[in-house]
Amino acid sequence: MSEWLVLSIAMASACAVVLIIVVLNNRRLGDDDDPSETPDVIEYMTMMIGVVYAIVLGLAIAGVWEGRSAAQESVRIEAQALHEVKARASVYPAEVRDRIRADVDAYVSHVVNDEWKVMSERNTLTERGTELLNQVRADVTDYEPKTDHEGQAYQPLVDQVAAADDARSSRGQNAGATMPGVVWFGLIIGALVTVGLIFTLQIRRTFRELLLAGLFSALIAFLLFLIWDFDAPFGRGISATADPFIDMFPGITR
């Protein structure tokens, strides 16, 4: 099911539930009911709980967005490091250079075409990707420089492979959901409490009040969906992409 369809259903359901409760609640009120009798303390508590929940939502959104940005940055660093390996290998003899470049291309092709799908579905890296990166490392470290020029390029090449390996590990760590279950429990309970408190204000069935109640509940549903979508940096609609690999390795196609 599409993430946007899930969002539409969640927002529509939230609106429908709130509006149905409002209508049913107003049917049982007598003609002598006075909405102005709502105690001031309830209005104050409703406002404060709403403010606290807004802060919690903001922190949750900031946290998952930061996680997504870190995941995208790890992809960029990995792609840049492998691009440097491919470029710096030009000082090596043709046989060694071509082998290094071919293995780098094979690794990048696997990441873009195979490993990315596995990350989105299973939240893990592939053993084949690890094997291909180890092959690139072996190509670089096993060669013994013959000239001073090759010797000067050797250590930077080793460092770039290490940087790519480190970025790959970071990409693997960011593949799954980062939001703890207890936080989700708090967010959902907070949403129910916050939306439920609007009924303490004795809203009526006027168009303006129903519209505001529906929009408020839809906004809460949208923000929770946004957190859920960002919580899996590689697995959902607004996710980190493999564009850095594609940009730096134009010959690699998806």
TrEMBL record:
<feature type="transmembrane region" description="Helical">
    <location>
        <begin position="6"/>
        <end position="24"/>
    </location>
</feature>
<protein>
    <submittedName>
        <fullName>Integral membrane protein</fullName>
    </submittedName>
</protein>
<dbReference type="InterPro" id="IPR025333">
    <property type="entry name" value="DUF4239"/>
</dbReference>
<keyword id="KW-0472">Membrane</keyword>
<keyword id="KW-1133">Transmembrane helix</keyword>
<keyword id="KW-0812">Transmembrane</keyword>
<feature type="transmembrane region" description="Helical">
    <location>
        <begin position="44"/>
        <end position="65"/>
    </location>
</feature>
<dbReference type="Pfam" id="PF14023">
    <property type="entry name" value="Bestrophin-like"/>
</dbReference>
<feature type="transmembrane region" description="Helical">
    <location>
        <begin position="182"/>
        <end position="203"/>
    </location>
</feature>
<feature type="transmembrane region" description="Helical">
    <location>
        <begin position="210"/>
        <end position="228"/>
    </location>
</feature>
